[in-house]
Specification:
With 93 residues, the chain is largely without helices or strands. The chain contains 2 helices and 4 strands; from the N terminus they run βββαβα. The structure holds iron/sulfur cluster (SF4) (2 copies). The site of one iron/sulfur cluster (SF4) has 14 residues, from loops. One of its GO terms (molecular function) is iron-sulfur cluster binding.
């Protein structure tokens, strides 16, 4: 059970220091999560801390590929407008 960082990541470092398990590390082209270390914060916090602080929608996904901050959740841009403006690849919608 582990989260993953996607190509949407902008390498802002925000998530790096909030992980209770030091599971997040810098890599190229973007940060990654060590799935042997990630516990989804169970036992440490009520919510995954990386996703709680990440400013980018769809940068962190669960094992099913579902974004913890889905399109529109942070910006509050209506989903139809996101599609219209092509702000995200179709697979994120
Ligand atoms: S969900 Fe929690 S344990 Fe997993 S990478 Fe994010 S902050 Fe670390
Ligand atoms: S907070 Fe989000 S955008 Fe920033 S480094 Fe972490 S995953 Fe990437």
């Amino acid at each position: 059970m582990a989260l993953q960082i996607t190509a949407q990541c902008v390498n802002c470092w925000a998530c790096h220091d909030v992980c209770p398990n030091d599971a997040i590390y810098q890599d190229t082209p973007h940060f990654l999560i060590d799935d042997d270390k990630c516990t989804e914060c169970l036992g440490d916090h009520p919510d995954p801390q990386c996703a709680a602080i990440c400013p980018i929608e769809c940068a962190i996904v669960d094992e099913l590929g579902d974004a913890l901050n889905p399109p529109g959740s942070l910006t509050h841009i209506p989903i139809e407008k996101i599609v219209e403006m092509a702000l995200l690849p179709a697979e994120y919608l």
